[in-house]
Amino acid sequence: MSDPVLSIRDLTVEIPTRGGLLRPVDQVSYDIAKGEILGVVGESGAGKSMAGNAVIGLLNRPAKITGGEIWLNGTRIDKLQGENMRRLRGKDIGMVFQDPLTSLNPLLTIGDQLTETMLQHLSITQTEARKRAIAALEEVGIPAASERLDSYPHEFSGGMRQRVVIALALCAEPSLIIADEPTTALDVSVQAQIIALLKRLCRDRGTAVMLITHDMGVIAETADRVAVMYAGRLAELGPVREVITAPEHPYTDGLMGSTPLASKGLKRLRQIPGSMPRLTAMPTGCAFHPRCPKAQDICRHDPRPRRDGGRAACHFPITHSAEETA
Amino acid sequence: MTLGGDCRNCRLMLAYALRRVLQSFLVLLVVGLVAFSMFRFVGDPVDNLLGQERTQEDIERVRADLGLDDPFLVQYWTFLKKAATGDFGLSYRQARPVGDIIAERAPATLELALVSGTMAIFFGVVLGIFTAIRRDGWVANVIMSTSLIGVSLPTFLIGILLIYLFSVELGWLPSFGRGEVVDLGWWTTGFLTASGLKALILPSITLGLYQMTLIMRLVRSEMLEVLRADYIRFARARGLREKSVNFRHALKNTLVPVITVTGLQLGSIIAFAIITETVFQWPGVGLLFINAIQFVDIPVMAAYLMLISVMFVGINLVVDLLYFAIDPRLRADRTKAH
Fold this sequence. Notes:
- The complex is a heterodimer of chains A (326) and B (338).
- With 326 residues, chain A is α/β, with parallel strands linked by helices.
- Chain A has helices at residues 48-56, 82-88, 110-121, 126-139, 145-148, 158-170, 188-205, 216-222, 240-245, 250-257, 297-301, 322-325, and strands at 6-17, 20-32, 37-41, 64-72, 75-76, 93-96, 176-180, 208-212, 225-230, 233-239.
- Helices cover 33% and strands 21% of the residues of chain A.
- In chain A, the strands form two sheets. A six-stranded mixed β-sheet of chain A has the order 6-7-8-3-9-10, with helices on both faces. A four-stranded antiparallel β-sheet of chain A has the order 2-1-4-5.
- In chain A, helix 3 (110-121) packs across helix 4 (126-139) and helix 4 (126-139) crosses helix 6.
- Helices cover 77% and strands 1% of the residues of chain B.
- Chain B is globular and about 85 Å long.
- Residues 1-5 and 333-338 of chain B have low confidence and may be disordered.
- The chains are: A alpha/beta (326), B mainly alpha (338).
- The interface between A and B is medium-sized, with 33 and 28 residues.
C-alpha cells in the first residue's frame, strides 16, 4: 500500500482539571489510506470525536494534544499553530458535523458559504467560485442547484442540508474527510442516502474518510476497516468483516453481541455488564477489565496490552477457528 | 437572486411594514387617550382658566367655547385631530402654543440624544465584540469590571462627578447649558460652534454611559453564545480566517437580539434625558417637562407624553423592519418554504 493519507501515532489528548489530569484519548494509533474509509466506533465518551477534533486542530480548551504524532500526507501536523493549521482546515482536511440543522449559518445563503470557502482555499475568481458551487451542489444531489444557490439553510430539509454540508466539506477537495456522526441527527430513511453519497464522492476522489459513529450498522455498510475505541484507548483495529464476524477483543465481542445486525439473523441480544468507566475513575490496568469475562491478574496491573501483530489490544484475545472468520 | 424572488420579498416587506405601522397607530391612540385623560382628571381646566372670580355664566360660556360639554368621544377625537397637526393648545404657564414651545426645545434634546445614542451604540458594540473575542485577556477583564460602574451608578451621580472633575477641578468643559447655538430658522444647533460642541460632551457621556455599558455587556454575552454555535465550529473547520468567522459569521447572528434592546434603549435615552437635562440645565424638552410638572402645566405634559411615545413607537417600527432585513427566516415564515 502507498503511504497513508493520515497516520496517527500514540496520540494522547489530555484535559487538566481541578480533580486531576483526564485523558480522553490515550495513545491511539491508526492509519487511513487514500480512498479508504476507516470507521471509528465506540460509546459516547470513548474519545472517538476527541481524536477527530485533535486531527483537525479544533480541540476545545483546555483539552490539548500532549503526546504522539499526527502525520498528514507525510507532513507532521500536530505541532502546527494558528495560521498554519487554519490553512490545512477545509483545504486538506474537511469535516462533516453531526447536526445539519445547526452547522450552517442561518443568515448566509448556501451559495455565500460555499463560495467563501472556495475563495479562501483556491485561487479562483468570484464567478468561477459560483460556477463551482453550482457544480458542487449538483454533485451532492441538490435539484435545481443554480436556483437553490441563493437559498438560505432554513429553506432546505435536514437531509438536503447535510448534503450541503458535505458539499461544503468537499468543495476545496481535501485529501481527508472527518465525518463526525454524519447521520445520527437524520431520519432513518435519509441516513442510507447520505452514507451512500459520502461513500461515492470519496471513492471517486480517492478521499480518505474517518467515519466516526456509534452505529455498527453504518460501519458494516460503509467502512473498509474499523477502529473500536473504549475509554480513550484503541481496543481493536482491523478489516470490517473480520472484526464483525470474529471479534478478538472481549469488548468488541460484547459490542457485536449487543448490536442487531441483519447478517447475524435473529438472536437474543447480549449485554455487557456494567458501564464504561468515567475518565475521572479509570481502573488500573486494562480499562475494560472490570467488565471483562476473561480478565486475569495481569489485566488488572498491566495498563497497556499491545496489539502485537493481532488486531486486539488484549492479553487474552478471543481466537476463532478458520470457518468462523470465513 | 432571481427577479421574482426580489419582488416577492418586496411585497412581503411592504405588507409587514404596513401591518407594523397600523399597530403603531393603535399604540399611539391609546397613549393619546392617556394624555387626553390628564386634562379631565388632573383638576378642572375651567378652574385653571378663570380663577377664583367667576360667574356661573362665565363657566358655562367657557365650557361651551372649549367644547367641554361635548360627549367624551367627540372631545377625544378633537384632541387627536389637533394633536396630529401638533396643536396641543396653550401652555397654562407661558400662555403660548405648546407646539411652539416644544419645537423650540426639541432640537436641544434630539441633538443630545443623537450624540449620546451614537456614542453608546458605537462604543457598546465595539467594546462588546472586543471583550467577547479577547475574553481571557486582561484588557477585556478590566473593561468588564469597569463597566459595572456604568451599570450601577445612577445617572445624576455620574453627571455630578463629571462636572466636579472636568468643570470644577480641571475647568476644561462647561458645567451647564448648550453653549453658543446657531439658529437655522427651524432648528437650533450646537454642532456648528466650538462652545456648542464642548457643551455637548459631558451631558452626552452622562446620558449615554448606562446605555453603552448595557449594550456592551449584551453584545458580549450574545457574541459568546454565538461563538459556541455549531456553524461557527463548522466555519472554523472549513479553514475560514478568524476575522471572517468573528465578523461575517458571528457578528451578524448577534445583531438580532442586540437590535431589540438597543432600540428600546434609544427610546429611553430620550426619556431619561429628563435627569441629565436637569443636572446640566440643558434647555431641552426634558427640562421643560420637569418644570411643567411643578406648575401642573397639563398641555405641556400631554404634548411631551405624545412626543415620547411617537419616538418610542417610531424606533420600534424601525427595529422591526431591521429584523426583517437581517434575518431571512422572518421573511420565509409568511410563505411556506419549499
